[in-house]
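User: Before I run my own analysis I want an independent prediction to cross-check against. Here's the chain; please return only the structure tokens and, at the end, one sentence I can use as a sanity check.
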Amino acid sequence: KTPVEVFWCLTDRCNLRCGYCRPSVDAACAAPSGQALGDDEIVAAVSAAVAAGITKVRLTGGEPLLRPGLPALIRRLSVLPGLADLSLTTNGILLAAMARELAASGLGRINVSLDTLVPERFKAVAGSGHPRTVLDGVSSAVAAGLSPVKLNVVVMAGINDDEVPEFVRLTHSMPVHV
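Assistant: Structure tokens:
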């Protein structure tokens, strides 16, 4: 049976160094320079996937918001006949500045990774950044009309497992799914 959703990695670059995802030093996992697919190649590949019965595409990374020209690529993908759902997964660091343009370009929904609401823990898990920056991005995504806005939380014993009730409370104060 043909799957209905595919995940499309737009870049292997990221602006965080989450310990469970990336090592603290650059690894040899990055695509060699010039070997990342260009926009035309991505549109052609997604078009072929949609023609084969794929109806949902999620853009991922690394951090997809680091990809130059992302809104233009989303515009091209969002109008493909047969593509019913175009979404994106992000760490949210750059989301506040881009949410409105992403929504206007045709992005439908968004998943935001956020493992902790505690600033010191955030830096320990992600290597840098602040949860307030991510939450500002989530608020911008909601205001831009992206729906649903989902928070991906990796619950880690002894690191953030005590925050589960706080994430549940967050769903009462913001229209988000955890």
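Sanity check: The first strand starts at residue 5 and ends at 9.
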